[in-house]
Amino acid sequence: MSEAILFDDGKLRCRWCSAAPEFLAYHDTEWGFPVADDFKLFEKISLEGFQSGLSWRTILAKRENFRKAFVNFDFNKIARFTDADVERLLQDEGIVRHRGKIEAVINNARCAQKLVATEGSLANFVWRYALPKNPAKPQSQSTSVESVDLSKTLKKRGWKFVGPTTVYAFMQAMGLINDHAEGCVIRKKVDKERKAFLAKREKK
């Protein structure tokens, strides 16, 4: 359900952020706001991969542990991880200990390096898939034409755990679309930041 609901402070917000106390700050200050920092983009797509089969609440609760384990998602450093690092991370109780997902982050870090070498930055690449306006009703779909396209392109470049649904969640969170519910107090803030962000990118 994507409609906005009234919170104790008298403001309307997306219904989903009422599901857990820690969701509120994430919703109000992060979700949907445009991000251009390569390491933050890489962090999010990595965490969305870890979320596969789990809840975002589980991942959000462990996010600081993930940041410590994966050196703040600096893909240049992660790309140098070895088999010994994989075994070390499999013993880290602070993160999701899934060999395939851990190895995927290391693989994707190396893919990110190659992408930056050809595209200039991860941001330059992913923001090509951004939409000025979301043509669908907010939170009414789990994939889009753009997320399918981006997913296919990443897979062709060797990335793993980047299916269309994972990529769409990444696009929602990083501001490539504004999927806040109509009436949500944050929707207008995100719209304003996205317009300024996209305008600035067009001038480059």
Distance between the termini: 38 Å
What is the topology, as strand order, of the major beta sheet?
1-2
Radius of gyration: 17 Å
Report the total helices.
11
Tally of discrete structural domains:
1
Sheet-strand content, in percent, reads under 5%
Low-confidence stretches: none
CATH architecture: Orthogonal Bundle
Shape: globular
Quaternary organization:
single chain
Structural class designation? mainly alpha
**Taking all residues together, what is the mean pLDDT?**
95
Main pleated-sheet profile = 2 strands, antiparallel
Q: What letter string, H or E per element, gives the SSE order?
A: EEHHHHHHHHHHH
Notes on the protein architecture:
The chain has 204 residues and is an all-alpha fold. The chain has a single domain, classed as Orthogonal Bundle (Endonuclease III, domain 1). 56% of the residues lie in helices and 3% in strands. The chain is built from eleven helices and two strands. The chain has a two-stranded antiparallel ribbon with strand order 1-2. The model has no long low-confidence stretch (mean pLDDT 95).
In terms of topology, how is this protein built?
Blueprint: E1 4-6, E2 12-14, H1 23-29, H2 38-51, H3 56-61, H4 63-69, H5 75-78, H6 83-90, H7 99-119, H8 122-126, H9 145-156, H10 164-174, H11 185-203
Helix pairs in contact: 2-7, 2-10, 9-10
